[in-house]
Amino acid sequence: MSNFETQNLIEPKPQHHEQPPETATKHPNPITSLILQPFQWLKMLSSELNPSFILGIFLIYGLSQGFSASFFKVVTDYYWKDVQKVQPSKVQLFIGLYHIPWVMKPVWGLMTDVFPVMGYKRRPYFIIAGVVGMVAATIVAEGSTRVGVATALWCLIAIAAGMAIADVTIDACIARNSIEFKSLAPDMQSLCGVCSSAGALIGYATSGFFVHHLGPQIALGLLAIPASSQIFLGFVIYEKKTTDHDSSIGKKQAIDNLGGALKGMYDTIQIPQVWKPTLYMYLSIALSFSTHEGHFYWYTDSKAGPAFSEEFVGMIRAIGACASIVGVLIYHKLLKDYPFRKLLFFAQLVYALSGFLDLIFILRWNLVLGIPDYLFVVLEECVTHIVTRVRWMPMIVLSTSLCPIGLEGTFFALLMSIDSLGSLSSKWGGAIVLQVFHVTRTDFTNLWLVTFIKSIMRLVTLCFIFLVPNTGRLDTPNPSEILQSESKSADLETNSDNLQLLPLKARQEV
């Protein structure tokens, strides 16, 4: 059971003075109130939770996940295309390999939950994640000569591994706080979403500039900076130190905890209220084939496509990051209290329909309608990111509700690894489709057909919406409560059977 506990380091001080009657009745300026509202919200979260935990969300979700992931995505696209000169279907396969560290999140989760380092369960893993990311980014960007494809792939996987380990560690803190402060779960996810989108905005906006002026290989070395922030967080984040584990008793306890964690995960995943929504989350991602590399190569092609520049490609995605923030605000302000099934049904429906905007763009029907390429792609990017964020937020909130108490980090990591497995399936499914329909670096004849298949598969996901519970965030029972209830029910049935058998046996003996 996790010993990570939050403490309130900032406590509101009672006010003893009284305001004059005329001041008390004065209404605040609406504009000032609107500006101060985010700061008041952050102050409230810092008062209820640990301020260093809020700093961790900013650094991991904002700088590591938001900036690094977006910067990584753009720069590696150009790295494989211009430096290594790899075909799009092969790059799609490589991107799937980046997701392997994310699929391994239960392993990182088990390590943080049951294997403390020097008495700490979270802090050392932030440091380890930062060191791995820094070393890998330095190797791939070192020198004026390019490294081989295999070496570059291993380095990029290591960079992704550093992000994944740090993500698991902060998610363990988020999952625990979401259970202890259930009413604040949407607020925490909203803060994570805003930080991630804001970081992505900066990453996308600057990626094209650095690729153009530094080149993709040197630009990858800049990822060492966010990795260093993970090391910093490992030294400053608050965590209560556990008992010493330098003795054989401590090692035996860790092994026992590992066995208990595995059994708890096995018992929890068998609960229908857990495995059904988990299956839906996997299918909703896996069935939406990712054909990003085919679109990227087409975007930047000077003959078949619109020939967007590096700066414009980064700017398009930066605008998409802004749209993601809008999606977070829409969910937080308007949709967070809706039942999961109803919200996810309409979100998935709009998500599927938005896929046909890609088809219109590939067929260049936007020009027939008199809409320039740059304007249409911006509109398409905004719609897609808003809908994607609205679709993703309730699934994350639901995932935190499915974590049993005491195994928050491990089980949340398991759920997120299933989502990452869905992303891997989506990437490799897209790679197969691109290969089957012969979409290459220069041939985009069948790209429209690939895009059409992708949009249809998104509609197919609606057939599985019944797997999602038709409850709200406050009505979803915790798996620990379900297991405890089932255990009590089993004991009652056993006792009831014994009460019926004993008199019958007594009568037979008589």
Quick structural overview:
This protein has 510 residues and is mainly alpha-helical. Helices cover 75% and strands 0% of the residues. It has helices spanning 21-24, 30-48, 51-83, 88-98, 100-103, 105-114, 123-141, 149-180, 185-214, 216-220, 224-236, 248-269, 272-286, 292-299, 310-335, 340-362, 365-368, 373-401, 408-436, 447-460, 479-509.
Reconstruct the topology from this structure.
Blueprint: H1 21-24, H2 30-48, H3 51-83, H4 88-98, H5 100-103, H6 105-114, H7 123-141, H8 149-180, H9 185-214, H10 216-220, H11 224-236, H12 248-269, H13 272-286, H14 292-299, H15 310-335, H16 340-362, H17 365-368, H18 373-401, H19 408-436, H20 447-460, H21 479-509
Structural features:
about 500 residues; mainly alpha; 21 helices; about 0% strand; globular; disordered N terminus; disordered C terminus; membrane; Major facilitator superfamily protein; FBT
Structure description:
The chain has helices at residues 21-24, 30-48, 51-83, 88-98, 100-103, 105-114, 123-141, 149-180, 185-214, 216-220, 224-236, 248-269, 272-286, 292-299, 310-335, 340-362, 365-368, 373-401, 408-436, 447-460, 479-509. It has a single domain (49-241, 269-477), classed as Growth Hormone, Chain: A, CATH 1.20.1250. α7 runs antiparallel to α8 (149-180). It contains 21 helices and no strands. The model is unreliable at 1-25, 245-249 and 489-510 (pLDDT under 50). The relative contact order is 0.14. By secondary structure, the chain is mainly alpha-helical. Helices cover 75% and strands 0% of the residues.
